[in-house]
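name: query_chain
kind: protein
chains: 1
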Amino acid sequence: MNARIDEIAGAVLDRAGHSKRFLVAIAGPPGAGKSTMADNLAEALKAKGESAEVLPMDGFHMDNAILIERGLLARKGIPETFDVRGFLDIIRAVRLADQEVLVPVFDRSRELAIASARPVSPDHRFIIVEGNYLLFSLGKWAELEGVFDFSIMLAPPIEVLEERLWARWRGYNLTEEAANAKVYGNDLPNGRLILENRRPADVTLEIALA
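structure:
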């Protein structure tokens, strides 16, 4: 296991003390490696005898039909294309740790969110939430301030994000023209927006840890 991941898991445990429920946020721009980091941190906590579950923010993408109606399909992933109210409701329910909460999961291969696709049990002590806008300081996203008990910001250099985003979209067999539109017309501008409007994190990393 990566020593830095183990160190962060130790810091999370120290901060958690005897808490029944502890929320960790992993935020950052598209392509930063949030989901990988979340899975690795969950495994590190489990290796220390803890229970942990990952809750991705991507499940709260608005449906494509709504985005088409609003003229936002090409900008899918910007702050305005998520169900922020629904996300806030779920996070607040999860925080209580008094009942099972079913959360949506995003299926990237079909570009849609699947409702009630992952259970978060009250027995899961650590909930690792990962997503672009968890530390975003603008709009309704700012209401997340103070919700998380520990926060990690992934902030790779723009040139690293650019390389990863090209690899992501080529991996979905997009044409060069379509991938170019995704990278330069949407994802990189979103990345800059996130990096320029973020609240301080407990830990900031340039590279997601494996």
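note: Strands lie at 22-27, 52-56, 101-107, 112-120, 126-131, 150-154, 203-205.
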